[in-house]
Structures are given as C-alpha cells and as structure tokens.
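Example (one chain per record):
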Amino acid sequence: MSQDLQKIFSFIDAHHVMSMATYADNELSACNLFYAFEKQSLCFVIASADDTRHIEHIKKNPQVAGTIVLETSKVSHIQGLQFRGRFEAMQNSSLEKLYFTTFPYSRALMPKLWCIKVEFFKLTDNRLGFGKKILWEKG
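Predicted structure:
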C-alpha cells in the first residue's frame, strides 16, 4: 500500500461522519452519514432508509461525491478529504459486520446498509505544508 493511501486511511479512521452529495432529475441533495470504512475494498459502509431523498437520487444516479473534514479554526491544522464513488446496495456480510461492530447500537434499528465504492480521493493536509494535496484515483 502506498504512503499516500496510508495517510488517507489514517484520516478516514480518525473520523466517523461524512457529508455526501447526490444528483438526479436536475436536483441536488446533501446529507450527513455515519460510516465505517473497509480498506481492502475501498468501501464506505453507511446506513440509510429507502425513503430518503439521497437514496431516491441514487436509484437513478449511483455516482456520489462527499467530504470528511476536521473542524478547526487553525489554518495550519486544516485537514479534509473529498471523495467520489459509486453507491451500491450491500452485498457483503463481512461489511455488515464491520458496520455493526463500529456502531453496535444501530443493530437495534436494523437499518438498510449500503456501500460507496470509492473511485477518487483528494486529501488536503496543511500539517504537511500549506495547501498540500494527496490525490488517488482508481485504476
């Protein structure tokens, strides 16, 4: 695994909430979601009900974009991750286990789980130098 991906994974592991944007029928939607991340498959595992606006969009257009950010007012500490990927219904029981291990209280709600297969990462990390960007793209 490259050093760049290790830095990206470390950032992802330090957080648990993402913002995600969807688009369909000439309408944008954004939401916040708890996530678990599986490094081997480059998959964010999230829970969401079928009747949400973002899932309605995803059924028409599975391409999504999102961010994870460290909230800070110190410019030298700014860190944030942008990603793009494809949203899919969960088909892997080990990913289900990962989500429920990460968020055990959610099992009581029996949420529907989904996977965002990441195709692109852009990590900004000012601790490595002002405006330092680390890019990764699938294939």
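Caption: Helices lie at 3-13, 53-60, 93-102.
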